[in-house]
Design goal:
Oligomer: single chain
Largest sheet: 2 strands, parallel
Strand content: 15-25%
Radius of gyration: 14 Å
Structural class: alpha/beta
Shape: globular
Length: 125
């Protein structure tokens, strides 16, 4: 994630400068990795949007896939403009939940098309 955003900020491919990061962890106080760097990227314009989901910081759990569903219109608009989607994180839970949310928002056929075009990539472990 860091290298993709840094590279895009230094030398944006095909004139694209928008980056949108959805970051999720359990607790903001303990798990907001790279907080200062991410916030600086947001303030400097290297990240157009930084949406956060900390699942254990409120009574009702909130995950990255929930943020995606809330931002479905923005996601569809970005994909139509040529955006690529990169998913990085836990194979158990997060990756499946995000994939399911993406299918629900974009449709399975569109998600397959993004995969074939190299615009939907997953680095899950």
């Amino acid at each position: 994630m860091r290298s993709s955003i840094r590279a895009g900020a230094r030398d944006p491919p095909a004139g694209r400068t928008d980056n949108w990061l959805l970051f999720g962890e359990r607790n903001q106080i303990h798990d907001f990795l790279l907080r200062a760097e991410l916030q600086a990227w947001r303030e400097d314009g290297d990240l157009a949007y930084l949406d956060l989901a900390f699942s254990r910081d409120q009574a009702e759990r909130r995950y990255v896939q929930d943020v995606l569903r809330d931002r479905a219109d923005r996601l569809r608009e970005w994909v139509e403009r040529g955006a690529a989607i990169y998913v990085c994180g836990s194979l158990q839970g997060m990756a499946g939940g995000v994939h399911e949310a993406l299918q629900g928002i974009l449709g399975a056929q569109a998600l397959d098309g993004l995969t074939n075009e190299g615009r939907y990539r997953r680095d899950v472990y």
